[in-house]
Structures
1.
Amino acid sequence: MAALALMLMAGCAVGPGFKEPASPDVSGYTATPLSPTTGVTNVSGGQTQQFVQGLDIPGQWWRLFHSQSLNDLIERSLTNNPNIKAAQAALAMAHENTLAQKGTFWPSAAASFSATRNRTSEDLAPIPNNNDLYYDLFTPQVSVSYVPDVFGLNRRTMESLKAQEEQQRFALVATYITLSANVVAAAIQEASLRAQIDATRQIIAFNTNMLQILRNQFTQGYVNQLAVAAQESQLAQAQATLAPLLTQLDQQRDLLAVLAGNFPIEDLPEKFNLSDLQLPEDLPLSLPSQLVEQRPDVRQAEENLHSASAQIGIATANRLPVIILTANAGTMALTASQIFISGAGFWTLGASVTQPIFQGGALLHKERAAKEAYIQAAEQYQSTVLTAFQNVADTLNALEHDGDAVKTAAAAVDAAKVTLDLTQRQSQAGYANYLALLSAEQAYQQASITLTQAQANRYADTAALFQALGGGWWHQSDLPQN
């Protein structure tokens, strides 16, 4: 029996052996070569950024923004967010399923004990050696069974479960990266909204002051009712833009609270302003061959492909013979005191082979379905890779244009400020009317809002690049590496 078991264990695993997909045969991400971005030194976030080929990504890349408030909030989020805990539980569950499957490689043993009261038919008597029609029967026994993995059914099942466990590991990594990137993006958006709200309130204050002046002038007969009505309309339009900004700010605060694992009623101590953030100047640019290893979504798709490959072997093995080896040993006695006496023991050894013959074509079609599922997984992997490269390319293109946008917006603010200063002086000297001053003030505040939005976009796209390149999870000690 032992020799037979060793011989059967030497069988091969049916189905295809999995091979990792080849790295994409591309040399870059964008159609045109990348160059250092445009910079301007007199505004926050206006520094020149350069792309460094092959620069590694730190595990805590958000620390490159040099904001302690941001660091603290992300650390709390990674500790308290329920999505992280759910992903950790899913990984632990997949790991336990893998360990459970390991039990199929070993013989299974079970102990049993039965005690029965019996009456034998007079036509069959005597059954016990004392010829009693009524008797008790006590039977303790141990049963051992073993299913040799001749065609690799257990091995392919284990391979599939390991791949599924790896999928969950990379799902945890993806959740980790997405959460940290979402916190950074929400903090940047909050900072942008605060700056826009400040600029809008300045516009409202200026228009309110101007309306009061015009009303006084109307009372004295220096202006007509049309000028007052026009100013009231300007003030109402400015006030109308404030409420949506305040709503967005409240929503961002709610979002940050939930990302940190809190209820919205639990306000966060951190508040964010663009001036508190420092723009990273050296930006990593991973090699295309590295991207497929760094992106957790690509690695998930690869493990899904691996699992689908193993499922073909499982479906194939289910069509082949199954060999079962069994052994039973125990005792049988009429009284409990005689269970362990000499001569009461029994044992059996057996082997059986089961070969599916007719299942209505079910097993054949399941094997064909497994092969089609593999093709589906292969195409999904390719789609995930293409999307990953698109994410990086989109972010790189945005960063190249963000520098120009900040530079242009900063120049517009400078020009609008000069115009406003000159108009204010002319107004004080009586050479410019209130409409010219109002127009100059609004142009300056609108230019300030545009600059704020351009700065926020540059910060956000910088964070998006770190996320698109994989987020440096391989340097995180609190993430399972394999």
2.
Amino acid sequence: MRAIRGLLPLYTVVFVGFLGYSLMIAAFTPMILRNDNEMLPAGSSRSLRSLVLGRLLALYPLGQFLGSPVLGALSPVRAAADPDRFACATTALYGAIAGALELQSLPLLMVACFLAGLSESNIVLAQGARADTAPRADRNRLFATST
């Protein structure tokens, strides 16, 4: 039970990261596909809207993909220096996403989503933290790899 309690903050961070992206999908899809907002011109075709939506939704995971190696390399430095600086950057960038939505600026929304993805590459950090805390003999089992 103590081991689960120790991992709860780690799993909470991963859950919140997935929840944030899931909410983006749920919010951006009707916003871009419907003609009742000013993100795209009112006469935009459904195919153009679908293309823009696909690119918009791909920017966050692309940022995570590109940011994961960088944040993974910085994770030992992160623990020693300032553990909250990446969380602060992510929070500020979620604020930028909200500002872009308020301004109805598609270019700003795209940049903010990409940068938020860069700053929230939490999966690699979670795996690194789990690897650091797991006994060496259990690592293969915990990461579901074959020996």
3.
Amino acid sequence: MTRVLIVDDHPVFRDGLAGLLATLPWVQVTGTAGTAEEALTALQENAPDVVLMDINLPGASGIEATRRAAQLAPATAVLVVSMVDDDDSVFAALAAGARGYILKGASADEITSALRTVAAGGAVFGAGVASRLLARTPARRPGSVPLPHDGLTAREREVLDLLAGGASNRHIARSLGISLKTVQNHVSRILDKLQAADRTQAVLRARGIAPTPD
């Protein structure tokens, strides 16, 4: 059973989300909150597995609440569910410790899938968010200080940098002068070493944006 705390200052959305989650047999809504302070109190009292966090809250913001939640309950995952769609807010939320970021316009299936992913220790980003994160996160340039890629080989780092630029497997193969099958093997090993579910998550983890499971 996944225990969930919902934090949003709009009662209609908050209650609607609670109603959606009540239909899921693997979810238990432990409480709701309309402010950051209420959220932090409920976090300590109810020990949820996941907090669904809005950004625009009265008083302290959802980003500040996320930062404090990460300190109070590091085992609890925060998934931001917000109408705010600017890059700075996304980066700030992730830097504060959020494990995912989706928009309120997401479908019920997308919200459910995102919740399941972060509850399992993964990172998730809604449509359009991940691609903008990659665009804002520069790839490592030749000669720069290598990033800590958790045991990746030099070739795997090259492949990862090309992935960060949005290159397809075929483009990577042409760029590096290797076969498509070799690229696929490299990508598979990168995902395994970074414990990533997909290419986007691998790049974000390598860049230090998305956390790596313990």
